[in-house]
UniProtKB/TrEMBL annotation:
Spans traversing the lipid bilayer: 1049-1072
SMART domains, sorted: LDLa, MAM
Coiled-coil region: none
Domain named MAM: residues: 1-153, 197-359, 382-552, 562-710, 712-870, 873-1033
GO cellular component, one term: membrane
Protein name per the record: MAM domain-containing protein
Cystine connections: 159-171, 166-184, 178-193
Domain of life: Eukaryota
One Pfam family named in its UniProt record: Ldl_recept_a
Residue numbers spanned by region Disordered: 1-25
PANTHER family: APICAL ENDOSOMAL GLYCOPROTEIN PRECURSOR (PTHR23282), MAM DOMAIN-CONTAINING PROTEIN (PTHR23282:SF101)
Keywords: Disulfide bond, Membrane, Transmembrane, Transmembrane helix
Amino acid sequence: MATEGKGYMWERRQRGDPLPNSGPSSDYTIGTSAGWFMAVTAVNGESPRIAVLTSPTINQSSPTCRLHLHYFIWDSGYTMLENSPLWAEVWTPEGQPSVVWRPENTSVRSWRKGTVFLGRIPGPFQIHIHSRRQDGRSGDVAIDQLEFMDCALPATESCGNGHFQCKQGGCVEERAVCDGTDDCGDRTDEENCDGFMSCDFEKDLCGWDLRSLSSLVWNRTSQMHISNSEPLRGPGRDHSSNSASGHFLYVTKPNVLKKDWASFQSPRLKPTNSSHPCRMVMYTHQFGGISGGLSVLVAEKQIYPVWERGGSLGDLWVKAEIEFVVNSTFQILFVAAIRDQAYGGIAVDDISLSPECRLSNESVRPEKFPKPPKKPCAEASKICDFNKDCPEGDDEAQCGDFSYKQGSKGWTDISVGSQSWKIMENASSAEVFLYVGESAGQQLTEAQTRTPPLGPSGLACTLKFSYSLTGSNQHIGEVSVIVVDSVLGTLPRLWEFGGRTGVNEAESWVNEEVYIGARDRRFQLEFRARALNPHSDARIAVKDVHFVECNPQYIPSTIDGLSCNFETDFCGWYQDQMDNYDWSVQNGLDHTIGKGKSLAVNMWNSTLRGLSGRLLSLSQNSLDEHCLSFFYKLYGPQTGALNVKLLFKDGSEQLLWTRFGAHGNVWQEGHCPVPQQMSSYQLVFEAVRSGFDGQVAIDDVAFVKGSCSLPTMCSFEGQRCGYTNNRDSLWVHQTWDGTRIGPKTDHSLETEMGYYMLAHSGVDVLPQGSVTTLISPVRYGVTHTECVYFWYNMGGHNPGTLHVYVKPVDGERILIYSSDLNQEHDWHLGMGSVSWHGDWQLQFVVEGGGGKHTYIAIDDISFSTNSCPNTDKVCDLERGLCGWSNTQSHHLDHLDWELSNLLSETHYPTPPYDHTLHNERGHFLFLPHTLWDSATQNAWLLSPYLPPTKGTCLYFWVYQPVASDSKLVVWTLSKGAKTELLSITWAEETWQHFQLNVTSETDYQIVFEGFKGTKGVLALDDFGYTVGLNCAGEQTNQTTPTSSNNSGVIAASVVVAILLMVTLAVILFLYLRIREHNRSQTRDSVDHVDNPGFGNDLYEPAHIVLPPIYGQENEREVA
């Protein structure tokens, strides 16, 4: 393929890392960031520009030829889509280009399926795919996975009964002879047609009369006369020659008209009978919103309809056959309904009357005219909205629900192929059902029938029906249910069945229920089906169609609140029907009981496409502050993200909480404050597929009134997690925008979009010696020592000092960490043990140092249930990562090292045991082989910053069997420069020990860089370092460590020891007895709740709580 354009062109590309703010979140074919697709470049011009993608030359195509593709149109920059951001044309050497495909130009961040009906093209041609935009971001128009279908001419074979032999050797059905289409490919099926009254409208009207009883009239025209520059105007081509120069009859809406109808009629025809009926073949093009439908009527003594097709059928010419048996002179009357919409119209071409249709000289004088349609009893938006607005319920009577006498008539066949849906009414049994039968259409596509626009629908909305696929063959065909959204278009199938339900239709009906759910926009339901052999005794049928509990105001009585452990149902939560995929029930290894149920999205599922899967709560109307608590799992080498959002009635959203990247194969506890809201809202759990190899899961959700206690982890993305200033406003919640003082990137995302808390410490804001304090919510005491982890960044000359305190609710504060060193704008890890067992708050105190334009920033605060690790001891991974972390920068790696053990692992290959405990419960870090095409992608594991050294020993254990083709490289990283220490391409079938001497003249980090292979696994365990002591056990000379003051840890321990020695056991016992009473009073005074909610009250947290290990950047824009 070739591309054209001046500054705006198509290019082959991947999504890349991180998740971009424009274009698809993945390709369509394989559904990952590694997949390729074609997309446009960015454009910003004074006038629209056109990018053209040109196919190779194709020799010819058959009448059934079509091109399937997936396309993407998204206005990520909100610059507005032009009328034609995407369309396709056919170019031939000798003719004008003809438009063959024009998809809806709605903006959706999702891949959609399109079909280009090419039709019969007798000579060489090329397909040009155009995009026209004036202002747009890169990748916002894209295509992928193109596939040609049924494009070959009939193969040479001997013809059976009912078929016609073509000169070139192929066979076509006899009904295709003299039908105005070159089905043979050599036109032999259209040669001997002298007895037919055929009109292709190339020279004249052939006796057809275009006079109309309305002010709107049909015109004989061609696409060249309508427009050569505006793709949305006209049918794009005629049927006869499949070109822009060919003529046809056409009607559309003039600019000044709202809606109307137009008619034309045939010459007068003689009476016919059932033995010799008059047969008419024609081709119609009903495209766009303007097309309200086309009807064919007989005008004799009375006027009555004999054929109709409603609405738009797509961007193609559709063949129709009509048989007339009329016992008096008559005329054929065409009537088109035109609607007040933006584009489209109705065209008719290649009308052919069989020899039995004979001209008559007698006049036609109708004595009885059809009654005008009944005026609707309700406005259009209230028709088929699952609520009876009219006295007799007429507004719901023809919506597709068989509960109503006319309900079956609500289904409208929109088939364009050789099979279509029909209605069977059995007078003897009063049974009505839909079935698939043969049709005149040429395309080898599914039969389709749709309801009128429905809804909006309610939470419990369900479609009930019975179906049967019967016949003598083992496989009859397929039937499915699809939703067509008014904005998103055709959505993935809700339900499908293929095969056979039985031999005899009377005994082979199967009852089915399909969940429709809550949908805020109007939508249509569609049955699709295709029989493999329609000429046999195969029958596909549907009956007893009912819409159950679809009223949007209906809420099942079984729903009681949002607190839920998902063991029996979803409680007050439900799947968002407008997202890309659903949350699924996960059995086993849940948080509640270990063997129960949780909800999960498996990012490794190869069938997932699109960016997000969302779980919505029922609407909440409370004006009070609430706390949403839950347990979650983010697990895998490329797992994506989990967001919590507020969704308002106007469609706007607010991010409250987010986590991303690898957090280990363990359940983590999340607390999300929900601020007071003046209007109703819904809560949203959103799994974001920014990564493609991991799992996102939730369990034990609780939603209670009141504020949250201090969360176990806060990245400051979305909100401040309840952290407040102490009587000043020197702490700000910010990102870097190029002009502000502060780090250019946060620590969580390592992007300019990431948030952190920052204190301005410049002398003009915070004089030397003055302080400003960031205060956490209350954290309730526990009986064991905890560790608080945080990342801090100091910028400028003399930025000041950072002090971190534990402030008991009743008592003097205790220093646990202090640092006054300029870290040169790098993020550094700080930690401090908390041994206070009463309720307390965390205080970050910044003391001014007298510098100018300086700052101190804080990010990624988290707590573990264990005391802080001793960095001079081995990290056995049984209590977390000991200060080591995955990198967040996509410039450095693509994957994450993941923490797990053999007992918990059900998806990835692992070592048979860990090195520390030598059993299935012991933990390790690993980088597994998976099915995703991410071989050779890397993952970095970084140590905390270490001081300059003339000899520090690094030791670690590696599991890398011979069968694995992964790779491990060990580096030191200092001021952006890497120094390789060791490269391992394979080890042994058991854990292998390595020791390395490390030297560095500056502060540095140790990096374990793993490269994923195509097979096997790479794992680490029991790693550590001895600062200032080499691997021979010798003390080395080194510069003074750039240490931070952790004397507060010792002070806290001394204070606690004295208290324990002084306090008698009896007093301690009494204290524990009355502790709950005192705590409840404390809660009232500070307006907090203790471990709020269903899940956290009944179940203990996970045994391992890790410091933050983030990976993938989160995208907030959702389709």
